[in-house]
Amino acid sequence: MKSPNPSPSDVPARDGRPANGPLDRFFRISERGSTLGTEVRGGLATFFAMAYIVVLNPLIIGLATDVNGETLGIPGVAAMTALVAALSCVLMGVVSRYPFAIAAGMGLNAVVAFGIAPLMPWADVFLLIIIEGVLLLILVLTGFRTAVFAAIPPGLKVAIAVGVGLFLALIGLVNAGFVQGNEAPPLQLGAGGLNGWPILIFVIGLLLSIALYVRNVRGALLIGIVVTTGIAIVVETLLGDGGDRLGWAETIPSLPSSAAELVALPDTSLLGLFAEGGLSGRFSDVGVATVVMLVFTLLLADFFDTMGTMVGVAHQGDLADENGNIEGARGVLTADALGTLLGGAGSASVATLYAESAAGVGEGARTGIAPIVTGAMFLVATLFTPLVTLVPFEAATPVLVIVGFMMMTQVTGIDFKDPAIGIGAFLAIIMMPFTYSIANGIGFGLLGYAFVMLVTGRGRRVHPLLWLISVIFLIHFAEAPISALIT
Length: 487
Description:
- This protein has helices spanning 21-27, 36-50, 53-62, 74-96, 108-116, 122-141, 144-151, 154-175, 197-214, 220-239, 288-316, 329-345, 357-362, 369-381, 393-396, 398-408, 419-435, 438-455, 464-477, 479-486; strands at residues 102-104, 179-181, 187-189, 351-353.
- By secondary structure, the chain is mainly alpha-helical.
- A two-stranded antiparallel ribbon has the order 1-4. Strands 2-3 form a two-stranded antiparallel ribbon.
């Protein structure tokens, strides 16, 4: 591939045509075989493919309780989700010049809501995210993050993306009540069976979303949410009593009572929540060791989530080499780290690359113009975030199952004939949903790969950085028994 920093002179396009003007040269439009119109269409396609995050992230982050039982609320999180996505996408387009969109990460928001918020106030949660973003940026600027990315075998990179997909699918099934926890068996269909209007709404939404997706309808996932929400509102209006008699998981769907429930200036009350109460004496209730481990968990999850998505989308757009590496990856990773900082400052969770960027790449997008267009659309979406309060879990979570499928399709890129890659990938894929943790899946996957390489006499072929990360994960998993021995 060519240098990520072409000279100011015209760069020849793939078909031999010279670059046309400074915009073309900066974004390498002609060089990558694209056009301005194609990039705009790609940016719009990506937006409609991932706009569901403005609905879904508030249902996860906005309704989760912190250690004090406080919630952030849906309207504020919806507005900040859209605003952070808008700014992050523009940053990604300008800094990396690749067609990757960025927003609050699915899976990562689950880590924040279910793994960190129960331990500390929301203000501390977002300060923790900012700390993680700063560390991430340092790792990028020093070249460490890129080095680690190159050290991980391509098959394991793919496995990480697949595992995240299965984790998202499980979150969707559980949040909709389609799958519920029980003592024996641990998981089962519904409460011993599938029953009730909310479950039916989920099934309708899932089938509709699948039908739209397989027919290549643009914005299929967003359309699925909108139509299913409309059906849910009709059902609640005809059969409900204004309460939760029908058994909705969280939000009760209802018709808007005023124009303010449709369009309004974005609620920016959560902006800068991380600074609430000053910066001294923070995290005193959880202790330094817990803070370090939480930052480490976020760092690992964000670190590899982004890498897995970058590889998958880059391969689709023929932007990666045979080893899954892309030139100028540092720009992508820098923009990703800056997005995490914005996510913490805006109280919108950790921002990361989106697999739905593949929708824009599928339309032919190959440059950073596409995410800039996506960002502009998210900026417009900030005015419509009140609509999010009308969407029940059952109408939104089918999208998670579809996204899980989309990420699962990359499994064909894993060489299961190689026992080290196969076992490492298998552990990474199953441990993410089974332990409800992206970081756990990554850790077990890398440990499994390193162990099999060692026992098959190939230990010297494992990159030293991979051994270092494996040892760190091993210490992390052994923390509890080590603490027990010490005390």
